[in-house]
Amino acid sequence: DLLPLALALKSHLPADLRAGGSVGGSAHIALRRGEAMPTGSADFRFSRMELRSGATSLQVSAARLQWDGRRLQVPAAAASLRSGGGSTPVELGAALDRRGFELTFSSPALDSGAAAGLAHLLGVSSPWPAAIRGEARAAFRLASSWPQLRNTQWSGTARFSEASFDPPGGSGRRLTLRPLVVSVGEP
Question: Distance between CA atoms of 76 and 82, rounded to whole angstroms?
Answer without folding.
Answer: 19
